[in-house]
Design a protein that fits this description.
This protein has 213 residues and is α+β, with helices and mostly antiparallel strands. It has five helices and nine strands. Bound molecules: zinc ion (ZN). The site of zinc ion has 4 residues, from β7.
Length: 213
């Protein structure tokens, strides 16, 4: 009778127990034990930030964060299904955690523009079209509401327009918190393009490739 162990995980250990060396012929391949890799993997890591005392610690997605903490989320952040009226909460806490770490090194980071309403984004785009002469030319710097990630709550402008030097700290260290600089031509624009601790994707030249008329 086959011996089954592992209950619902289906660890099957009976197939490998035949050690009768008198029948050494051309053995059939030993079946690979059916312990799937996912059953033994450690859970996905999760960073938790306690905003009162600025404490960041490692947890995992199964244990979660404490009530006093806020989760940084374990993935890149993507577009919400419904309209929003504030900055994505994972993006916000990622920034707060990064801001606290920068502060300890004497570097000041501040969000100068985060969530923008559709109306506000439309006004900015209209002004940019006037300044740059066409919608296409404007889209390298400012996108219309339907294309921009600011009205989705998924983008922050940091230390704009004056403090490039401090913002380089975030460009270098932001990946730890899942914050990535998105565009070559905008040193101030960051998004949650990766899971915390994972490498950021390469920057794209500018926002115009997202432009939808
Ligand atoms: Zn921006």
């Amino acid at each position: 009778m086959a011996i089954l162990a592992g209950g619902v995980f289906g660890f099957y250990v009976g197939a490998e127990s035949n050690s009768d060396s008198s029948i050494v012929q051309t053995p059939t391949p030993t079946p690979t034990p059916s312990v799937s890799a996912s059953a033994v993997q450690t859970p996905l890591q999760l960073l938790c930030f306690e905003p009162v005392n600025n404490i960041l610690r490692n947890s995992d997605v199964i244990a979660g964060c404490l009530e006093s903490e806020r989760s940084l989320g374990a993935t890149a952040l993507s577009a919400p299904q419904n309209p929003v009226n504030q900055l994505n909460q994972f993006l916000e806490v990622r920034f707060l955690a990064a801001q606290a770490a920068a502060e300890k090194e004497g570097v000041r980071l501040a969000i100068t523009s985060g969530f923008r309403s559709f109306d506000r984004q439309a006004t900015l785009f209209k002004a940019a079209v006037k300044k740059y002469g066409s919608e296409e030319a404007a889209s390298h710097w400012v996108l219309p509401p339907a294309s921009s990630h600011h009205p989705l709550g998924l983008a922050i402008d940091v230390n704009y327009p004056n403090d490039l030097v401090s913002t380089l700290w975030l460009e270098k260290n932001g990946f730890t918190y899942g914050l990535c600089r998105a565009y070559v031509n905008e040193w101030w624009h960051f998004e949650a393009l990766a899971a915390p601790g994972q490498p950021c994707p390469p920057m794209i030249a500018d926002a115009s490739s997202l432009f939808v008329e």
